[in-house]
């Protein structure tokens, strides 16, 4: 009998086949993990944008200004224009005219920069309403226009698919 040293061709082919299957499975698992990481990053970015947008609108409406002849709070179901105090780069507060608008499937904020900020997208339907004064039986209005008073609050309802978000923003000092 001869003593063998080495592997037969069949053993080598089986080893290579098992190795190829392991490489293929590892590649698919890695691709699945990276795809999931990309989707998670996109979802986190969208959530951050919505949260930052809510915070920004809340700050702007809390600093809303009214009282002079040029100030006008003008709100409808799809657009809201108002003056507000905005803190510039060096800490100076400047008066800005802002507009919050439901434009097709997007929620836009105009007035802080030359380009509108997209605060929300994929919106199927939306509506803004205004609470004129505090009280238990006070109805929400679909339009509010005044040079003398701010509404107590602004309610924004946004529908995306089956989900409806209701956002409530309080305004600054009343005139």
Can you describe this structure?
The protein is an alpha+beta fold. It has one domain. Helices cover about 30% and strands about 35% of the residues. The chain is built from one helix and ten strands; from the N terminus they run αββββββββββ. A hairpin with a 2-residue loop joins strand 4 and strand 5. The chain is elongated, with a radius of gyration of 29 Å. The model has no long low-confidence stretch (mean pLDDT about 90).
* SS class: alpha+beta
Number of strands: 10
Radius of gyration: 29 Å
Shape: elongated
Considering DSSP H and I runs of 4 or more, what fraction of the residues is helical?
Answer: 25-40%
Order of helices and strands: HEEEEEEEEEE
Largest sheet: 7 strands, antiparallel
- Helix count, DSSP H or I runs of 4 or more residues: 1
Determine the N-to-C terminus distance: 108 Å
Quaternary class:
single chain
Q: What proportion strand?
A: 25-35%
Determine the mean pLDDT: 89
Q: List low-pLDDT spans.
A: none
* Total separate domains: 1
Compact overview of the structure:
By secondary structure, this protein is of the alpha+beta class.
Keywords:
single chain, 175 residues, alpha+beta, 7-stranded antiparallel β-sheet, 3-stranded antiparallel β-sheet, 10 strands, elongated
